[in-house]
Design a protein that fits this description.
By secondary structure, the protein is of the alpha+beta class. The chain is built from 14 helices and 15 strands. It has four domains: 89 residues, Immunoglobulin-like, CATH 2.60.40.180; 65 residues; 115 residues; 134 residues, Glutaredoxin (3-Layer(aba) Sandwich), CATH 3.40.30. Strand 5 and strand 6 form a beta hairpin. It has a five-stranded mixed β-sheet with strand order 13-12-11-14-15. The protein has a four-stranded mixed β-sheet with strand order 4-1-7-8, with helices on one face. A four-stranded antiparallel β-sheet has the order 3-2-5-6.
């Protein structure tokens, strides 16, 4: 009975005297200003948590009874928000920091195991980082990779020694991709390396962990993954998005942050396949169950935008619009008799359009015998259409098969064709089906030759 009472007493004592909230004392050497900023990473941004004022002892204190999420936080100034990184976790939130504003690499902690490990790692890594920067500046790329490999070895050592801690997650996310470390791939040809990268590039972050959103490297890793890895293989983008979003879990904070991020990312069609990705994301994920934080009206608006993009995807019949030529004669685009129509959206005064016109004239001369017709659609409308005809003359476009505009301003042709930038070139077949879109003028001949080869 006495043992039971003692056990209960110990439990009650632990509860009563357990540390709650956070209490971080900050000693700022060589710093004269009476305020400091405390911020944290969230996604790709930096959020200010608090502005601290110097106390009567000349120090700063970050203190509250509330809990903070496990994250990397920063001590900074008005001009530099991210000077000194440190860790706060709900298990490690009562400690002291000593920072030297005269030497930004001089910092230490007392009473925090997480920060002791983190600072020890940082002091080692910073020395190698400086060497690597020097090699990079001098274009000594092989030596730079050797340093990166050495850094990765140090990171793996710290991760192994600190399993289950937040600092281990943080250091693991620092491990960098090096093609030279991929010893498991035989032959190492480009396609094998790319496929391996797509399947393994994000291995060093746990997408299902809510703390990943507050790791400094997470957002860069995810954006680099899609911008520098997956985008090299457009057919893999949709699958990669599914893998990433499902790994996050649709009820998670990560999912709620990254679904809108990816939707915005693929809302601008910088490549012809991007509209397909956008439409896929909307159809699959913008439902009441998956996008639960949005109103019905917001979900409907996104679906309407996706439908608009789908109308002008490759493989679709061109939207049915009627424009007019300089003589006010109506021309329905679907009625133009051409084996291949090169439909060009342009605007007078657009420098990129101006550079495209000589390319189009040369293209017309070379491929006219193949049944090609050049059709231009000026984006000036209503009373501004007179500028279109001035532009046709100035840019020597008179020999194109059709130069058209929307004098009424009521056709909505820019929206129907999802024109977000100019010049925008479509390649359309005899059945008025879109073969390709957003073709760069410099790539038009190359893309068209491929079309001809595929039809042989």
């Amino acid at each position: 009975m006495k043992h039971i009472l003692l056990f209960i007493t110990l439990i009650i004592s632990e509860v009563l005297f357990a540390q709650t909230g956070y209490d971080i004392g900050i000693k700022a050497k060589n710093y004269q200003v009476d305020s400091l900023f405390v911020s944290y990473k969230y996604g790709g941004g930096n959020v200010v948590l608090n502005i601290l004022k110097r106390n009567s002892q000349g120090d700063f204190v970050l203190k509250s009874d509330a809990l903070l999420p496990d994250a990397v936080y920063y001590i900074g100034t008005l001009t530099k928000k991210e000077l000194f990184p440190f860790i706060i976790t709900q298990k490690d939130s009562h400690f002291d920091l000593t920072l030297d504003f005269g030497d930004e690499k001089n910092y230490s902690s007392k009473g925090s195991k997480e920060n002791e490990v983190f600072f020890e790692y940082k002091h080692q890594a910073d020395v190698l980082e400086n060497k690597r920067k020097d090699f990079l500046m001098n274009r000594q790329l092989q030596r730079k990779d050797i340093i990166t490999h050495e850094l990765n070895q140090i990171r793996r050592k710290y991760v192994g020694q600190n399993q289950g801690t937040f600092v281990a997650k943080l250091i693991k996310s620092d491990i960098e991709w090096l093609d030279s470390e991929m010893t498991s791939i035989k032959g190492k040809d480009r396609d094998k390396i790319l496929d391996y990268k797509i399947n393994n590039y994000l291995n060093n972050i746990d997408l299902s962990d809510k703390t990943a959103l507050r790791l400094p490297k997470t957002h860069k890793l995810i954006t680099d993954y899609f911008d520098r890895v997956v985008h090299l293989k457009p057919d893999a983008v949709v699958h990669a998005l599914d893998s990433v979003l499902w790994a996050m879990g649709y009820k998670s904070e990560m999912f709620k942050f990254y679904l809108p991020f990816f939707t915005r990312k693929y809302s601008f069609p910088f490549r012809p396949w991007v509209d397909n990705v956008y439409a896929y994301l909307v159809k699959k994920y913008y439902t009441k169950e998956m996008a639960y934080w949005l109103s019905d009206k917001e979900i409907q608006r996104v679906h309407e935008m996706a439908k608009q993009k789908e109308e002008s995807l490759p493989g679709k019949i061109i939207p049915d619009i009627t424009l007019v030529d300089q003589n006010n004669k109506s021309v329905r685009l679907r009625d133009i008799d051409a084996k291949y129509m090169i439909l060009v959206f342009w605007r007078p005064g657009c420098s990129h359009c101006r550079h495209a016109m000589p390319v189009l004239r040369e293209f017309q001369n070379k491929y006219k015998s193949k049944g090609v017709k050049i059709v231009t659609a000026c984006t000036r409308q209503r009373s501004d259409t007179y500028r279109c005809w001035e532009g046709v003359k100035n840019e020597k476009m008179e020999d194109f098969d059709y130069n058209l505009a929307d004098k009424s301003g009521k056709t909505g042709f820019l929206k129907k064709y999802n024109i977000t930038g100019i010049p925008n070139i479509f390649i359309i077949d005899k059945n008025k089906k879109i073969i390709d879109k957003k073709v760069a003028p410099s790539k038009l001949e190359e893309v068209f030759e491929k079309v001809l080869r595929e039809e042989e």
